[in-house]
Amino acid sequence: MLDWLRRKLGSGPDRALDWRRRVASFRRLLGRSAELCGLVAELEAELRVAGPDEPRVRERMRRALATSLDLVQDLSELRGGGVEDLFAAHERLEREVAGRLRRAQRPPSLPLVVAIEAPEARSREQAGGKAGNLAELRTVLPHAVPPGFVATTAAYRAVAGAAGLPDKLVGLLVAGRGGEAALAERAAELRRLIETTSVPEPLAQAIAAHGAQFPEARRWAVRSSGVGEDGTLSFAGQFDTLLGVLPQGLVDAYRAVVASRFSERALAYCQGAGLAVLGTPMAVLFLPMIPAAAAGVLYTRDPHDPHAPTMWIAATWGLGLDLVGGRASADLFVVAREPAGRIIETRLARKETAIELAEDSPGLASRTLGPEQRDSPALDAAAVRELALLGLRAERHFGGAQDIEWALDRAGKLWLVQSRPLVLSAGRAPAAARHRVLLHGRPLAPGRAVGHVHRALTDAEIDATPEGAVLVVRQATAELARVLGRLGAVVAELGQNDGAALLRQAGVPAVGDAAGAFARLEPGEPASVDGSRGEIYAGILWPELRAPRRGAGIQSPDARFFHDRIVRLALVDPATGNPRGEGCGSVHDLGRLVHERAVDAMLGLGERRSRARRLDAPLPLDLRLLDLGGAVAEQARAAARPSRRCRSRRCGAASSIRG
User: Fold this and answer.
1) DSSP letters for 511-562
2) What's the sign of the alpha-carbon dihedral 333, 231, 171, 589?
3) Strands 510-512, 535-538: parallel, antiparallel or unpaired by DSSP?
4) Which of 200, 351, 485, 542 is most buried, by CB atoms within 10 Å?
5) φ, ψ for residue 229 (rounded to 5)?
């Protein structure tokens, strides 16, 4: 009988030694659990600004996996085994993460600069969306796409590394709070960081060498080409384009375009879309400037009625910057798709000025138009037909409707300088019968929305846009990116521009060319906007639409995968359902389950004889005390009573651990 009792209870010294070992294992486990929580929090933040191919992010993921394995081993030591399901769960997660990391590994070496004819220029990962599309189009229409070269995403990473950008980005964008004002301050600091960093000498030499291959090019266009740009999201107007750059200024222009990656509106756009800032690197496209007599945009489909057999061509004199930037209206040609180029309708705009290359200095100049050009069409019928044919060939090649920027040089030759997917509506919505129409305009972005009018003439007034408002502006420019997530609808007095593309992609209904909007729409008044028909009504016609529409928001597939396998917490309450390792979908889940089992093992919750004591308190709390080092006074121990496991979802088990 005595032998049986000794085996059951153990000798005093042996039991004390075993308890000290368990306490040491438990303390070590708690420390590693806190470390894993910190790693997960840092990864969650970093995956919002950096892609999984960034070395610091990859190292953080490896540390999270190693720490979670240490946690399982600590639990095994604490419990004396019985955690095979957790070892199996870790092995599964490690295998999935390691395999995806190998596939997401950045190629070891990429060229810093490539000609637009090079195969690398057709890679969106190396040359970005804008340059990649143009390089691909040049293989189909070599006579209509100008030559040039691209500073690749490898060049961007070289500049970012030289500036110490990854560490700075995490510090400024992840830890920062404070709304638009704080974002503007952090964006300015990031731009200064790029602007004051010297371009690495190999990159500067490569840009100069490629520029020297175009001795006839007196001026250059230096344009952004971000990864993801002109794809699912266009980034329309978010980054800088420098025109009229002298050959000796190409390196400085490159740095300026890269710095625009960190403008306030570009950062807000990325964050609103769920894009990692470093995970969408910036390539830069260099094209010799075309001395444009006229320029504009071509939509190969009617963006508001994709089933209509028509396309739209907008045109103005000069380089067309006023048109694209939303500062002026342009001639509109509604053109048949079959027979291609037949003009169905012409709407001429009064064109006061033309933006052209400055004669004796870098940059551009504005020229006042004479009466012979002011009210005459910027394109003749032959140019309209030729442009329509080029647009249809681009559409067939890319397999979908295209939004194309074009220029007509002074010799009468047409050039395509940009092509991106055109966002289309599902078709015109039926009119809202028996309601008073306040204004008619041109459809800019399809859909319907309701809200209260907010008028904005300045950037500060745009930033003050209330949630769900009908925003009234002079023109829907790219500056609206800062408040896209808050907009119910937009009404603009002027017409088509970069802002319209952003609004369509974000799902914000919009009407342009709504002359007199500031006079007719009073601040605070309820209004309903039909972006598909280009009409604004008085009152709330569709009360079910009071909540503003949001952009879909995207992440790279790799970033989403690693977030789900490491960061995402699905095992919120491990105390219910007796979960096992196979239920852990992420490293975070695994750490959470290890912690729960360790607390159970240490406190003996649910055991008949537990070392944990439940503290009597006047509040409805379930507090457990476990005296690891004899620091709790004897009278406090006497005031506590043995703990019994609490299964109520309202009371969480907490422990006061001292040693």
Assistant:
1) EE--TTHHHHS-TT-EEEEETTTTEEEES-S-GGG-SPP-------HHHHHH
2) positive
3) unpaired
4) 351
5) -70, 140
Spatial neighbors of 394 by CB under 8 A, at least 6 apart, are 137, 140, 141, 300, 402, 404, 416, 419
Handedness of CA 453, 455, 459, 460 (dihedral sign): negative
Look over the chain and give the mean of its residue pLDDT values, rounded to a whole number: 79
Tokens of residue 169, six digits: 């980005």
Which residue pairs, CB below 8 angstroms and at least 24 apart, start in 54-58? 54/166, 54/278, 54/279, 56/166, 56/167, 56/170, 58/101
Residue 418, token pair as written in the block: 């940009």
DSSP state string for 124-190: HHHHHHHHHHHHHHHHH-TTTS---EEE-HHHHHHHHHHTTHHHHHIIIIIT--SHHHHHHHHHHHH
Q: What pLDDT score was predicted for residue 604?
A: 63
> Beta strands 241-245 and 353-357: pairing type?
unpaired
Tens digit of each residue's pLDDT (9 = 90 or more) over 491-548: 998 865 556 666 776 778 889 888 899 999 999 899 999 887 788 998 888 776 665 4
pLDDT band at 69 (very low <50, low <70, confident <90, very high): very high
Whether this prediction's pTM lies above 0.90 is answered by no
Determine the 3-state secondary structure of 275 from DSSP: coil
**CA atoms of 374 and 357, how far apart (whole Å):** 19
pLDDT tens-digit map of 314-327: 999 998 776 655 55
Radius of gyration of the chain (CA): 32
Tell me which residue has tokens 């510090």. Answer: 171
CA-to-CA distance for 617 and 29, rounded, in angstroms? Answer: 29
Q: Burial of 609 by CB count in 10 Å (0-12 exposed, 13-18 middle, 19+ buried)?
A: exposed
The sign one gets for the Cα dihedral 520, 521, 527, 530 is positive
Collapsing DSSP to helix, strand or coil, 42 comes out as: helix
Question: What CA–CA distance (Å, rounded) separates 625 from 183?
Answer: 45
